[in-house]
Give the backbone structure.
Amino acid sequence: MDELTRHFRDAVAGSPPSRVDLDGLITADRQRRRHRALTLAGTGVAAAVAAVAVPTLVAAPGPGEMALPPMSSGSGDASLCAAPIPLPSGPEPPLATYDTVRVRPTEPWEVGVPRLTAALRAALATTVPTNLTVTGTVPECDRPQFAYQPPYRQYETIATLSRDGRHSHLKVAVSPTGAEAQADCAEAPDHRNCEVWGLGDDGVAMLSTSTDPAGGTLRWVQLMRVDGTSVTVTAGNLLYGDRGPGARAAREALLTSQELVELARAPGLTLYP
Amino acid sequence: MPVDVEGYRDYVGARLESLRRTAYLLCGDWHTADDLVSTALIKLLRHWPRVSAMDNPDAYVRRTLLRVWLDERRRPWRREAAWAEVPDQPLAAGATEGAADRLTILALLAELPPRRRAVLVLRYFCDLSVEETARELGCTAGTVKSQSARAIEALRGRLVDLPTRIEEVRTDG
């Protein structure tokens, strides 16, 4: 059937210019691959978190409370209070923008808050001396728990340390390490009085203590983890929140710098679990 | 696995016109043909690391194009007939004779069921053997032969007249 072949070739002889955009196809496929990789990575993280969190959430202990994922360190009784979320009275501050040493974590704060809270409580249980009590500053919630601060993209909690009717405060913040950050005590309350400790696989810790003539003490520790997380722990005898009319400040911070370092090194206090 | 984009670009660049023409004979419309080829090339790119290592990547691309075309035909907006009526005679003589012949052969192809049309295009435009056509369509050689015979039988009545008419026009012109 050469005749048919000839007719076919005649029919396609006057082909118009091609509309096939080869470069566009390649670009679109490259974007698809990138999107797919990101989606798969996100799905993997979400699945891992769900595998840990869902069984515990199902077994929530009571109304107004949300159970926390179990921690390997043994804090199985942790529960999260329904903390009030204050509404901004004015324009919110701009989102803190700075480059980080690692891609920012994709973990939603709804997942990060209970995870970090459980890790902190486990660390407090093993680090804080038994004659010292730790209470949260959230009303009607006696255990410390993290809150997420969107403008600064960090998790933070403030707790009260008490011994013999004297109080001190404890503040823990977890944030991504900035790309420009150095272990140079730049954020220390007294950068002239600062030590830098190498902690091997845990990273580098900076320790500083500041005192004032009126008897105020502030111990500050910042751990720059190898994984790109910065954990800042401070303890001092400045009181936060309403502790009642009889509240009295302790003479000192109630936790030593070494104990603050141990808190900061807690395995779960990371943004890249 | 990283994609050898340059190898893909070279391969497609050498075969793009051939693929467009094959698609045009299958669907009868250049715009749709370009869309079909684009879709097939996207699929090819996704599997390029594997396809480029095959002995005969051309067969894979043709099969992909055929599947894309058959899938496209199943879409609701493609169910309307592209050719309501096959012209019995060339539309005009002289300068439009080429276009008339082209429309006629496309109209005749459009009358055929999809697989018979594919058999004719693969056998008589892509110059594939009966066995190669059977492999690409996923059927037996006997099926290709019977489909081909029926398709040619359906075209025979009007197809054999074409050379005569062309000759008449040339004589007149």
